[in-house]
């Protein structure tokens, strides 16, 4: 039986994915399901780092749009990611998998501060490392955090697990029934076409460091394992077969 295609990954989860069928908050059943899927790939020998968003609790951009100071609102969003990360950590450990939670904002009573070498050592010891509090800086998204951490720990891929979306489309499939799904894209396609996969900063980081991404539907049980094994699911984003990142395809 073939082994995993990727040996060290960053799994990017949106905050909304933890809410399950609810619009806000944390669904313990959903978190449990995600934790079970993470255990499946850890058992395959895959080194797993996780970045979780906070949109199910607070979005920095939303607070800013209502007149709140942007930096303050973003810090609130960082705290939301820590709440989500603690919930995920608890669920993963109940499956018998060792974890370490590292935060970009120090709070030593509940998590380690982010230290790159320590994070890599945890991964080498088969511990799941959860990166919380974003980059520790306002104005940067958790998508950018995923790209930055992936570059720092030399991850093979970023797995972008989406809630109810099975890949990247040329328009919103919920609003346009004729939306076309892409099986494969290059980094510059995301930037040039303004596709809503991740923000431009995160996409540029991935392009500069040649980190591929796979965008897939988290709601389908087993998709995390399928993505790790290299199965043809979702949308693959990276360089083309000639190693070029910048040529825009028609």
Mean pLDDT equals 92
Within CATH, the superfamily carries the name: Acetylglutamate kinase-like
Instruction: Give the biggest sheet.
Output: 9 strands, mixed
Unreliable stretches (pLDDT < 50, length at least 5) are: 241-250
Strand order of the largest sheet: 4-3-5-2-1-6-10-11-9
SSE order, as H and E? EHEHHEEHEHEEEEHHEHE
CATH architecture type: 3-Layer(aba) Sandwich
Termini separation comes to 37 Å
Multimeric organization: single chain
CATH third-tier fold name: Carbamate kinase
Strand content: 15-25%
Tell me the number of helical segments per DSSP (H or I, 4 or more residues long). 8
Rounded radius of gyration (Å): 17 Å
Note the overall shape. globular
Tally of DSSP β-strands: 11
Task: List the domain count as a whole number.
Answer: 1
Structural class: alpha/beta
Q: Class, according to the CATH hierarchy? A: Alpha Beta
Roughly how much helix do the residues carry, as a percent range? 25-40%
Can you lay out the helices and strands and say which pair or pack?
Blueprint: E1 8-13, H1 28-42, E2 47-52, H2 60-65, H3 70-94, E3 99-103, E4 112-113, H4 116-124, E5 128-132, H5 142-152, E6 157-162, E7 168-169, E8 181-182, E9 184-186, H6 187-193, H7 200-208, E10 213-217, H8 223-229, E11 235-238
Parallel strand pairs: 1-2, 1-6, 2-5, 3-4, 3-5, 6-10, 9-11
Antiparallel strand pairs: 7-8, 10-11
Helix pairs in contact: 1-3, 1-8, 5-7, 6-7
């Amino acid at each position: 039986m073939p082994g995993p295609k990727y040996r060290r990954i960053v799994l990017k989860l949106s905050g909304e994915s933890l809410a399950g069928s609810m619009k806000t908050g944390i669904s313990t059943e959903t978190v449990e399901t995600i934790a079970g899927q993470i255990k499946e790939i850890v058992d395959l020998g895959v080194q797993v780092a996780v970045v979780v968003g906070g949109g199910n609790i607070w979005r920095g951009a939303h607070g800013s749009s209502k007149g709140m100071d942007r930096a303050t609102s973003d810090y609130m969003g960082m705290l939301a990611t820590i709440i989500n990360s603690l919930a995920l950590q608890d669920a993963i450990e109940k499956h018998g998998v060792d974890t370490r939670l590292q935060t970009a904002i120090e709070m030593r009573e509940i998590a380690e501060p982010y230290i790159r070498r320590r994070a890599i050592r945890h991964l080498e010891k088969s511990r799941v490392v959860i990166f919380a509090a974003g980059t520790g800086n306002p104005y940067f998204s958790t998508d950018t955090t995923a790209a930055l951490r992936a570059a720092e720990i030399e991850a093979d891929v970023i797995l972008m697990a989406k809630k109810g979306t099975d890949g990247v489309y040329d328009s919103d499939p919920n609003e346009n029934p004729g939306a076309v799904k892409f099986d494969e894209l290059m980094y510059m396609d995301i930037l040039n076409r303004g596709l809503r996969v991740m923000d431009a900063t995160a996409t540029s980081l991935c392009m500069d460091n040649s980190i591929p991404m796979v965008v897939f539907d988290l709601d389908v049980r087993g998709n995390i394992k399928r993505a790790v094994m290299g199965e043809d699911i979702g949308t693959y984003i990276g360089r083309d077969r000639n190693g070029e990142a910048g040529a825009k395809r028609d």
